[in-house]
Amino acid sequence: KAGVTQTPRYLIKTRGQQVTLSCSPISGHRSVSWYQQTPGQGLQFLFEYFSETQRNKGNFPGRFSGRQFSNSRSEMNVSTLELGDSALYLCASSLTGSYDGYEQYFGPGTRLTVT
Amino acid sequence: DQQVKQNSPSLSVQEGRISILNCDYTNSMFDYFLWYKKYPAEGPTFLISISSIKDKNEDGRFTVFLNKSAKHLSLHIVPSQPGDSAVYFCAAKNTGTASKLTFGTGTRLQVTL
Smallest Cβ distance to B99: which of A40, A42, A94? Predict the structure, then answer.
């Protein structure tokens, strides 16, 4: 079974621009979560989507948004990029996010650098 | 407010010995705990988990212990192997809040020959 895939793997953007990251979950997984990893901060939860609906949201500004499509693929968008948005963005999928799917499986991440 | 803490940023252990990685949490609503391993340039890989109704869960060389009264969990790796060298993240969740995982900042384990 193919794992979680994320595209692109690396991205360089300029302050003020916007960016869209893509995530394809493991086949059959309906829950997709997004995390931001920065040095010293660990992984910070951004949001979770399940059946095309945002089910949970972390403490990030409104510049961070996402969506999920009917095939469970998800996209994350960051508008008006700031230098502090430079990070590794990780996507994770799980069966449902409930009792039978607590374990989340991560993709390799997208390394975003904002200059 | 760091609700999940891994106070040791790094740990060095000799091959064949036991590695013990520690994690503390402050949120008493957490009832499910997971450990992930992360190699450079890869996403975290799920290792082992434990529900709050248990105090121990074992999977091969990996055992997780949970002390609810102390709000502390630990991951034991026995015996440690060079391939275990990675960053280990502890994560916790409240099973009533869907998929949100709260992660610690990680411990870098180095297994030396």
Answer: A94
Q: Is the pLDDT assigned to residue A99 strictly greater than 60?
A: no
SS3 category, B76: strand
Mean pLDDT of A70-88: 96
Cβ atoms within 10 Å of B52's Cβ, excluding its own: 15
A60 touches chain B (CB under 8 A): no
> Per the CB < 8 Å rule, is B98 touching A55?
yes
SS3 B53: coil
Q: Evaluate if residue A104 carries a pLDDT over 70.
A: yes
Averaged pLDDT for residues A26-45? 89
Structure tokens at B110: 């180095």
Residue A51 in tokens:
């059946």
User: How does strand B45-51 pair with strand B32-38?
Assistant: antiparallel
Residues 6+ apart with CB under 8 A from B60: none
Is there a contact between A101 and B54 (Cβ–Cβ < 8 Å)?
Answer: no
